[in-house]
Amino acid sequence: DQSKYGFHYLIWMESLPHAAIESGDNRYITAYLDILSQWYAARDTITGARPMHPVFYELGLSGRSKRFLDFMYAMKLLDTGSKLSPNHVRILFKSLLGAGRWLTLEQTTKGYRQGNWQVHGFWGLLTIGYTIPEFRESTEFRSVGAEYLEHHLERDYYEDGGHSERCYSYGSGCLKHFEEATLLAEANPQIAITTKHDWRSHVAKAFSWFLKMAGPGGECPGINDGLFMKPVDLFQRAAEFTGDSSYLRPIRHELTETPESEEPEFRSMQLGPSEFCVMRTGWEPDDTFMLVNYGQYPGGHSHMGILDFNLYAQGVPMAAEVGRFGPYDAPLNLFYRSEQAHNHIVVEGAESARAEIRGEDIEFGSTDAFDFFAGIHRGYETSAQVIIERRILFIKPWGFLISDAVSCSPRRRSSLWYLHSPFPINTSADQALASGEGIGMVIAPADPRQIKYAHTGIDYLEEMVQEMPLYSGVPPTVHWPDRYFIALRGWNILEPVTPFDVLLVPFRGDQPKASVEPMECNVVGNPSRPARPRALRVKSNDQELHIFHSIPGVSVSTHEITFSGCTAAIELQDGTPTRAFVHKGDALGIRGTQVPVSGEGSEVFNL
User: Fold this and answer.
1) What is the pTM of this model?
2) Cα gap 535→599, rounded to integer Å
3) Is residue 393 very low, low, confident or very high in pLDDT (cuts 50, 70, 90)?
4) Domains of the chain listed by start with CATH number
5) What span, in angstroms and rounded, lies between the C-alpha atoms of 436 and 507?
6) Is 469 helix (H, G, I), strand (E, B) or coil?
7) Three-class DSSP labels, 407-419
């Protein structure tokens, strides 16, 4: 059906010139030219209305033009120009010239438009303008393309290099267009357009964002409308573009020849402008990695997750949100975007104002032994009078304590704590297990009732993926094509704050004995909403910690330990405190001794 969105990208024709180059068989060139003639002959019979006309819109015009140019280069490489008839030449050059003219109108009549569509548009203009300078309008194509490229450099990128759509796949596509435009201009200085900005430095910064956000094995989780992806090509291009071998570090095991590469200078970090936090133990494929999203809702490619996370360990995703795959009219498209498809809390029966909010009161700290994140969001404040707080303590290298507080005022609410995984999830009396063959993750809540009232299920399975509607005739390539979920249910009658304290312990081999339980404690002071001061005991095999959550000015005391501030974690050996992690602590007293906390950032003390 040629009226379908995406058909006229002509991606489905790319295999023919590739096969011709690989095999040397010119029949593939002949087949391409035959299909091209049929496609062009049908141009007046295709229906569709702007702005989504299936042929004459930016994505189709720009993508198709680049593929026509690539085909012409393939013919030159194979020395098969004799197969081009005058009619073939007319079709190719009329299509390219018409695309340039139409793309010029798209930019000059509509002005700047945020997002990837116009990026495709100006990239198409620059590609045609630089590649075929013989067109009389080629100077205008280059000039208009450069003008709008610079608008997007100025307005579409965060200071840390992240793209405004906050999405790996669309961000990587835009980056490739900026990169190619930069290389075209640098390769053709005699016809280059005078510019205001240093395109190369902007592209390098955008590449650096992907390295900061990448998992240790190079994988990128499915944030917003992004696919789960391992962008090997992107990191190879980044290394070549910048001369920095650290881009090859995450993907070195994916390459035929293991390159020399430096480990990046960073591990855990906060990307404040684009509003993500990354926790990682290192850059080996089996290292542990968590990505936390607390940012704004930037538009049409956004999902409803907020303070949500994706977790990799042992070389695989352990907690992986649904993400997306397939075309936008696939049956699961609304589900991909929904609150229920993300690793966060959903207030039952209430509408989320996700598009209007972002994370607030964000805290982040990193040390060799612990990482810490905290934030709140008001997505349910209007509809349900609920504020949600999330704190994440990474106990390196073995586990994560996710501590949430659902503050309800004046009415009580019930909430669902969602976690999605590629592994089937089974429950016992007091915890759940997401597991495959010899690998898995313990999911242990402090309140066993939350397991009792939980429900588990299937997000989708590979057989469902294979049923997605497609226009190329080829099922989508989906990493981790099975997805399961657990939704812990919680509420609190005595107090208007419902805590969810859930310990996540990934493992390979023997399952660890892991648990978290509330500790009786004395609280002095009046906490402000939504915090709930509390103490918890965390165990995993021979590891034991006492965790304290509070706010400045409110103290929590138990087992001869008193803490006031944000969060503290006390490691114990045979019942004796040996080390303390503190984030923004006012005071910490352990068995009569005051620990000299500064009240600033994250600190670790040997006791």
Assistant:
1) 0.94
2) 19
3) very high
4) 1-110 (no CATH), 269-512 (2.70.98.70), 513-607 (no CATH)
5) 11
6) coil
7) EECCCCCCEEEEE
